[in-house]
Structure formats: structure tokens, C-alpha cells
Amino acid sequence: MNRPSDGTKLREEDDDNSVIGCQSPHFTCCVASIYPFKVGVFAMLRELLTVLNDAAEAHIPDLMPGILSSLQDKGNNSGLKIEGLMFLNAAMARSSAQTFRPHIPVLAPPVLSAVNERYYKVTSEALRVCEEMARVIYPGEEPLSPELQGITSSLYEAVLVRLTAQDQDQEVKERAISCMAVTVALLGNYLNAQQEQVLNVLLERLRNEITRLTAVKAFSTITSSPLRLDLSPVLSPAVAELTSFLRKANRLLRQASLETLIAMVKSQSEALGAAELDALVVEAANLVTDEDLHLAAQSLRLCCTLLAAQPPSAQAIGDKVLPKAMTLVQSQLLQGVGLEALQQFFAAVAASGAPGGSFENLLQSLLSYGAAAHTPKAAQSSIAKCIAALCHSAGTEHVNSTVSSLLAKLKAPDNAQQQRLDLLVIGEIGRRENLALFDSVKSTINMALESPLDEIKSAGSMALGGVAVGSLETFLPFLLEQIGTQSESSKHQYMLLKSLNEVIASVTKGTASGGARLEQAQQEHILQLLLKNCESEEECRNVVAECAGSLALLNPSFVIPQLQSLVESESSAMRWLVVTALRYAITEKPSEADKALAISLPPALMCIADADRHVRRAAVLTLSSVSHNKPSLIRDNLPDLLPALYGQTVVREDLIRIVDLGPFKHKIDDGLELRKAAFECMDMVMDQCASYVDYAVFVQHLESGLKDHYDVKMPCHSMLAKLAQRSPHTVLAHIEGIVPLLEKTLTAKLKSDAVKQEVDRNDDMLRSCLRAVDAVARIPSVDSNSSFSNFMKNVVQAGPMAAKYQAVKEERQEAEVTAVRDRAAH
Q: What is the pTM of this model?
């Protein structure tokens, strides 16, 4: 039986609505039957909603009697009411407001009654439903009916009782705060007289250490309200509290506070005083470091919001934040959201007139920092992106003057550091702007690609890719021509292919300038050029495969069948290219390529049994990738693929060679990397496709890995630990063969002249082995096996190994406690 992996697979096999629709009479009947069935049906319905999302929407009228019955249950056991509330919350969250709005008059009384129940779990779930009810009642721009206005008042009163109560469970306190925030944010215009009371209560909760995080989020919800509510009665003290939270050690609190402050500055900035803004800027500046790039990004976003909403804050931001930003841009850790926020910040500062923040000053400072001898290469790349963002926001005149200046300097570069920075800046500006009018761009980049310095060649490659992204019609033909004529120089070819990959990836992601597209003829030309380079050196072949994979994502219906047609090519290099290109075409998120991949992957993956070991390894890596990202594409083919995969776990003598080094001989195992990849693939298949794995066969090959090389043993220890949890009877059935292998690993002696690296590797292997032992030791009745008992007594719990084993157990127990705590917090 094929088992769907996710909602997508299930929707392919069954119509969403039919799954619940054809069963809803049975569900209704069950909900009206005896207690255990009622609870079970609601739990099952809730699970269905997590998979099918909005599939229950059309059947809510059929389910309403059962829902109301559960909410009005008078029994002593609260389980049914809790399950009913949980299902109602899930259904409301996944349905349109129009679906539930007609039912609010009959749902509101029992839900609001549940809010006042004594058992905290019922109250908590009822408050969650009330939060969804507020979203359902919210009329948008339409007026609210008198009946729903009355329900809104009742909802407010019920939640207020819980919000103001002192002696109640923490979960209820937090739910009440969250529910009231949503109610006020969406229905506050019908609660005008009560708004100030609510805001003052929330301010009290903000000052309470136990509830402050939830209160911070509540203020964010209210501040972001589409009703643009007036927060002036509590704005100043709230901002003061939130500003003070930026100094706290609690990271979640700082994150939430920054988000709330950004929302407040956007919507309430006219009510903020200069002293409050100055204090806010000082605290925000302290977070602009590379210690936490997410917080730094939020702080920079806050400063950008201040510059837009409160222009007088430019003085303080220029004095306090700009120096911190200049330090951050030089960090080699800068990336992602931090780098994006920094680009926006420099552009905002230049537009604000902040002291020292003119375009010219910022440009010169960034160029100076980027060219400094101590600046890391990663920082140069960040600085180049910031300069490009600065020029782009400043306008065409500044773009042209900056590019002209850089091109002039590149004709006679002062030093490699300066030359590399200038090339990177040209590429980043070219990515955003069309540089076709600058005649010297091509010759300048060509000169860089011919440099004897690898770092300049690499910068030239990035520059060429960037300018081609910004002007496909001018620079792409030039790039393709260069690739076609530079095949004799592998290093030059590699750099050109990297440029091409940047172009294809940018077009595929839709980030090319002006939304430029590659025409069909261009795609065909590129594909033929890539296939022509399949026999090139290894580093070039890797980039060729990546380019082909990116091209497959751009036009899967054309490229993927073309690749599939070459899977049986006589050239092993071509077969390797096909299999590897398909791996690069596999993405974590759904894509247009998935349909074509489902057809092309099975025959390509049969290359696991190819005659060439490089092709076999490429196929194994592709199977790992698809198992991790899109397991539904290959599940049906696993019965054919797994035997071939298991075949790659065997040590092959024909892949072992002896190299004579004079005084001694060295054994090289050319099959090691393939075996390591095969075992790692087995691990991935076990994680993602467990129901398709025959563990009795699986464990036999796992045993061979437990006596293999260090690099193979490590993933095998991890798999054994997982197998002990998922199929303990399989491990018990093979325990006699497993124990000697574990014992041999734990008792192996290092050479007397072992270097530190060998000692560290051995310690890592011992820990991984002991983790597997710990997992096996927790299998019920494993102690009844004499071999395992003796092994534990004489090896694991004896001598120095006992302390290592105890440390591993404590590490596992601590991880379990942390996981439970995290789940509870979630």
C-alpha cells in the first residue's frame, strides 16, 4: 500500500472534500454516541484538519450538532469538552470567516460559559476559541450586525474577567492576554468605552515578569490593528518598558519588544517625545553587533522606521547607530537578514540627512573599510552589497559616477585588496542596474579573469555574473562566447561557468533586473554548451551540473527530458552529469519541476548500480537528496532502489589499492566515500520512508558498517540508535551479531604515537558508539540476553569507559528534558 507522505500526496489520491464529506454522517453519528467514541472522533477530525487544511469547511453545518453537544457536556470528565474546543479552534483557524459567522450566535454561549469553568485546561482552550471567534466576527469595512455587537460585548466581558483575575494558572493568564489583544485589535471600535481599561491592564501585565512576554506580543497585535487605535493613554510608559526590555538577557523578550516598538513607531510616532526616542535609539544601537544578527537586523529596521516616521531622530541615529553599523559591516559573520537590514539602513541614512550620513560620506567610508588590508573577503562582499544598495537608492546620477570612478581605478589597480573590492562593487551594482552603456566593463572583467591571482579571478567571475544578471541582452552573449572559446583553460572556464550559474539562478528565482527571462533559444544554447563541458575537470563538472540543475528548475518540461534521454549515455561523465544535475533540481519546497522529476528520477537513480563508481556515488547522493526533500517522488521505486543501495555498502577489494611510498606502503580505499554516502543515504531513507524499509534486511547491512572505517561507523552508530527505538525487536533478533562489533570499537587501542587529531577522532567515535549502546540498553528485556549483559558489565560499565557512558546518558537525559520543556512552551 502506498502511504501518503503529506497533504500533497493525499490530495493526489483522494479529493479533499470527499474524505470528510462522505464520512461526515458517520462522524456526526459517532459524536452523538458514547463518550470514548466522541473523544476519539474529535481527535481524528483534528488530525485530518492538519493534513487537509480547509477540507472540513463545506461540512461545518453537518458537524455543528456534535460540536455543540461536546461544548454542552455536563459530565464530570472534561476530556470531551477539551477535544471539542480544540477541534473548533482548528476548524475556525482553517476556514473562512463567512463559514463560521452564521454559527456564532449558537456557538458563543457555550464557549463563553467554558471560559468561566474552573478547570484551567477547559478555560485555556475556550480562550483560544474566543480568539478565533473575534477573527470570525471582525467585519472588515462592513458594519457589524446588532446581534454580533452584543456577542462582542459578551466576549469582551468574559475575557476581561480572566484577564483581571489574579489567582489562576499561567497558561490561562497568557491566553487571556492574547485573546483580549486580538479582540481589541479587531473589534475595538465597538468597545470604545472599554479600550483604556484594557490598555491599563495590559500595561500592568507588561510590568509583571511572568506575563511580560505575552503582554509585549499583545501590544504588538493592538498596535498593528487595522483600526489604528489610539494608544496615547499608555504609550509613553509602554515604550519606556519596552525600551528597558532591550537590555534584558531573554532573547525572545528582546525580539518581541523590537517588533512591538517597530509597530508603535509606525502607527503612533506623533505621540512619542524626544526623550523617549533618544533612549530608544541608544538601546537599539547596543544591539547592532554580530553577536546576534537577527536582533541586529530588527534594531536596524527599527532605526529605518524611526528615520521615516520621525525625521528629527536622524541626529541621534547618526551619532549612536551609524558607527555601530560601520563596525558591523566589517564583520565576516554578517549575512542573511542582518546584511539585508544593513543595506536598507545605509540607504535610509543617506536619504535622511543624518550627520555624517550623506551619500558621499557613506560611500567613502565603505570603500575605505572594504579596501583595508585587514578586511576579510566575506566582509568585502557585504560591503559591496551595501554600496550597491546605497547607489541604487541614491539614483542614476550617483550610480553612473560611482561606476565610472571604479572602472577608472580598475585600469591601474593599487593593490589586490582594492581591486577585488572594486570588482565586487561593479558586480553588485550591475546586478541592480543596467551597465551596458559602460564600454569598458567587458575588458575590465576580462583583465580580472586573466589575473594570476585566484582571488581576483573569483571577483571577476562574480562581477561578470552580476552585470549579466542586470543586462542579459548585452552581457549574456559575451559570457556564452567566452565559455565556448576558453575550453583549454580549466581555471578560466571554471570562473566563467560560475558566472553563468549566477545568471541562471537569478533568472530562475526571478531576481534578474526588470524580471528578465531567458528565451527558449538561449536555454537550448546554454544546455548544449553545458553538455559539451561534461568531460571537463572535476571542479568545472560540478559547476556544469549545478548550472544544468538551475536550468531544469527554470524550464523543467524542456530540460529534464533532455537530461533523462542521456542517462544511458556511453560516457560515464555524461551519466554523472545527468544524475548530479537532477540532484540540483530537487528543492525543499514544491516546484514546477516536481512532475518531470517524478518521471525522470527513477531511471536516473538506477545508476546506483552503474559500472563507474563516481556515477554510483552521484546516484546515491541524489537518492539522499530526494529522500530528504521530496520522498514522495521515489517511495514507489524503493523496492527496486534499496537492493542497489545496499550493494554499495560492501567493501570491494577491487577498489582498494596499495601505494608504494618508499619506506612504507599506504593502502587507499577508493570505495570508502561511496560506502559512507550509501550508509548516510540509508539513514535518510529510514527517517523519511520508514514504512517502506524491511528492517530485517536493513540491519544486516548496518552490521557490516559497524565494522567498517571510522567515517562509516559514525553514521551507523546513529542508525543503530534510531533502529533501537523504532524497531527494537529487529535489534534484539540481531543482538548476538551487533554486540561483538560494538565491543571491538570500544576496546580498540590507539597507536602509542597517535597525534591529537587521531585521539580526538577516536573520542568522537567512542561517544557515538556509546550513544548507540545507550539506545540499545533501553530496549525492554535486552538485559535477558547474556551476551549484551556481559558486554555492559565487562566493557561499558567497567574502568574508564563507565565515566564516558555516564556522561553520554546524562547528555541524553538533559536533551530529553529540554525537548519536553520546549514542547510545553510551544
A: 0.84
